[in-house]
Design goal:
453 residues; alpha+beta; five-stranded mixed β-sheet; five-stranded antiparallel β-sheet
Length: 453
């Protein structure tokens, strides 16, 4: 659990500032579960420049509660949480100073969204909260007020969690829970998981990832791990300490995240998936008569493939769909070896390429059309699909035929600027698996929209 906060102060000399306003949002990594927002009487005057900046003046604070009156609520809101703030050293120092005046030692683990942003979103012109969220297309209201800045920090932190493909933030959370003595049972772990589409992460007591999975129903899938009797399931049941997750909304994002993060984190019980999951590939070769033949073969990295499949049967099923959609001859897709069979059953669908009734040049145009539709070469496109909630969409960016990554964006702040899109993109490797995941998904499922630019 995270306590994301922002504090406004009176200004003044170091360690002599007083709190004028505080906002805390308790965030479980997915949504806000509690909040506390209050003006605070600092019992000292506010510096004029602070009044101009925040709009908070001395008159507004005369009837506000003093710090000792809100201290208990602050402790309740931050109990068992990691403190998160933009420039957390400042907010944490202010809180520790105020609590020390009451004779209370306030100690918490902290995360700074400035430092995280510098690591996960490099090369920004500025890392001040206002300029950074503007560059990332994050809407913000009530700037320089505690509630507005804290809410902007929540949205920024949610983006940073998505960009953290090495899961360092999640690992620090698990280590904090270990220190607090939390030791959940398997049923307790399952209970806190949603029945939604996403990627889940199984951690041991050191916070290390031991398994990463993707599912349309994360609760059901993790329950299968915890009730399974295979050797891998039994090992996971013995070692699991916590399960974290990220909702993806779109299955396409789930497939891409799972593939990428398994390769980066190399969990011990995902060893089979650290290699390519696409073992069969489709190739095009001309025969002696000049006709392009589609061949489904074991994947060979030395050849240029059209698309790939996770199993031989999946490839055969796809070829059956390809022949009808593109009027391709089943003989030349390797589905029928006998010319008579193709003539008898498929002659009307392929115009008789197998018996020379259509010229190679004409037939090959159909094959090349199919190849073009299954490759992104030189394409600039954004694949738009559902987001994690009704107010959100996800976008997959392909630029010059290269897969760049994905992002989520708010419908209330439409992404029309490609530079903003690039800033919020979670970058991912453009490798054979990611390309084929996208190919296969677009071949099997409909997405909301594809925008070419």
């Amino acid at each position: 659990m995270y306590a994301i906060l922002d504090i406004e102060t009176t200004g003044g000399q170091f360690n002599e500032e007083g709190i004028t306003e505080i906002a805390i949002y308790k965030f479980d990594g997915h949504e806000i579960v509690d909040q506390f927002i209050s003006l605070v009487n600092p019992e000292k005057p506010i510096q004029p420049f602070v009044v101009n900046l925040t709009g908070i003046n001395n008159a507004m604070l005369r009837s506000a509660p003093k710090f000792f009156e809100v201290a208990k609520r602050i402790i309740e809101m931050t109990e068992g949480c990691i403190l998160v703030a933009h420039n957390s050293s400042f907010d944490y120092r202010i809180l520790r100073t105020e609590f020390s005046r009451l004779g209370y030692d306030f100690e918490k683990e902290t995360l700074c969204t400035v430092e995280l942003s510098k690591k996960l979103i490099p090369d920004q012109l500025s890392y001040s909260l206002g300029k950074l969220v503007r560059a990332l297309g994050i809407p913000v209201t009530d700037r320089h007020r505690a509630s507005g800045d804290a809410m902007a920090t929540v949205k920024l932190f949610k983006l940073l969690l998505s960009k953290d493909v090495e899961k360092e933030i999640l690992k620090s959370l698990i280590k904090t829970e270990v220190k607090s003595g939390l030791s959940p049972k398997l049923l307790d772990i399952i209970e806190q998981l949603p029945t939604k589409t996403g990627v889940y992460y199984i951690h041991n007591e050191n916070g290390d990832l031991i398994y990463i999975g993707k599912s349309k129903n994360m609760k059901k899938r993790v329950n299968q791990h915890f009730s399974g009797t295979s050797a891998k399931c039994l090992k996971i049941q013995l070692e699991v300490f916590a399960v974290t997750y990220e909702e993806t909304g779109s299955e396409l994002i789930g497939f891409l995240k799972e593939s990428e993060e398994i390769k980066i984190n190399k969990p011990r019980y995902n060893r089979a998936q650290t290699k390519s999951i696409f073992q069969w590939a489709l190739y095009a070769e001309k025969d002696s008569n000049g006709y392009l033949n589609l061949k489904l073969l074991k994947a060979d990295g030395r050849k240029k493939e059209i698309t790939a499949f996770s199993s031989l049967q999946e490839g055969k099923n796809a070829l059956f769909r390809i022949t009808s959609n593109h009027k391709l001859c089943q003989k030349y897709t390797g589905l029928y070896a006998a010319k008579d069979e193709c003539f008898q059953y498929k002659i009307k669908e392929c115009d008789g390429a197998c018996i020379g009734k259509i010229l190679p040049e004409v037939y090959n145009e159909r094959v090349e059309d199919f190849i073009h539709k299954n490759q992104f070469e030189n394409n600039n496109m954004i694949i738009i699909d559902r987001g994690r909630n009704i107010q959100e969409r996800c976008a997959v960016l392909i630029e010059n035929g290269i897969y760049k990554g994905y992002c989520f964006y708010d419908l209330n702040y439409q992404i029309n600027n490609i530079e903003i899109l690039k800033n919020i993109i979670i970058p991912m490797q453009n490798n054979r698996d990611t390309r084929n995941i996208i190919h296969n998904y677009l071949r099997k499922f409909k997405v909301m929209k594809i925008v070419k630019f």
